[in-house]
Design a protein that fits this description.
Length: about 325
Amino acid sequence: MEFRYLGNSGLKVSAISYGNWVTHGSQVEADRATVCVRAALEAGITTFDTADVYANTAAEKILGDALAGQRRESLEIFTKVYFPTGPRGHNDTGLSRKHILESINGSLQRLQTDYVDLYQAHRYDHFTPLEETMEAFADVVRSGKALYIGVSEWTPEQLRAGHALARELRIPFVSNQPQYNALYRVIEPEVVPTCRELGISQVVFSPIAQGVLTGKYKPGQPVPEGSRATDKDGSVFIKNLLTDDTLSKVQQLQPLADAEGLTMAQLAIAWVLANDNVASAITGGSRPEQITANAAAAGKKLSAETLAGIDAALGDAVQRDGSVVGQASPSRRLS
């Protein structure tokens, strides 16, 4: 396993991390989830990413159970706060002081740990003053309940403002968690340069585009049963990619993967890790063999010819419009 520094900090994380967004408590039940977590550990993965909203808190509980008995100091556990959980009461969402301080306590209880290594704002909250949010995060850090602070899907302007407040409050703001893969590169124009300047790393989700970049979705054929395209959450991120034109372009990546001695999934992950602002690529997996195979992409360096070949094969199927960054942050209260 390769390890990389998280932002401008001394914390190292595994270049491949294991996330349980649409698996634990949804596609994968507890027993199989534990087998998958053990496979991740055996493959050298030490970084685990979850969120309180995943499966309405069940994913955190399952991950906590699966990691029970492991040496805590050898793990990096990430979770997030923002979206509604529980009964979806009027304060059960957002980045208010109330919601943050109550949510961290619930997350720690479910994860069976005294602290998380990284506590992330799952989206930007347009309805809470940023000062209130960052002051609450500062209290979480100073209480020892989180070691570092990060965010997810924030714009360059939001990142700058949050980072400035974090510096004033003397708390370590070290990461952003965006969607990023060879088909979806919207963070490249502005987010990545901003983060390099500020000392913030990317911890990216969907490095294989919810499975599209594995080649398992074939043009002109129905989607496989049990795939992300059939999951109500995962399908949101995949439906626009399931066109015959895009899927045909993806099939052209197979010879490039073969030439590198990689699977198409490993090729996609290695492509993401070629970006030096990426600290870790979050991979999922409902079967242990998937996790083992994904982890093998760590440390693989793609040739310049392969990188150029990926660009040529995908062509205009790649989304590069940086103006869409931040659109995932809700424009209205969710409860």
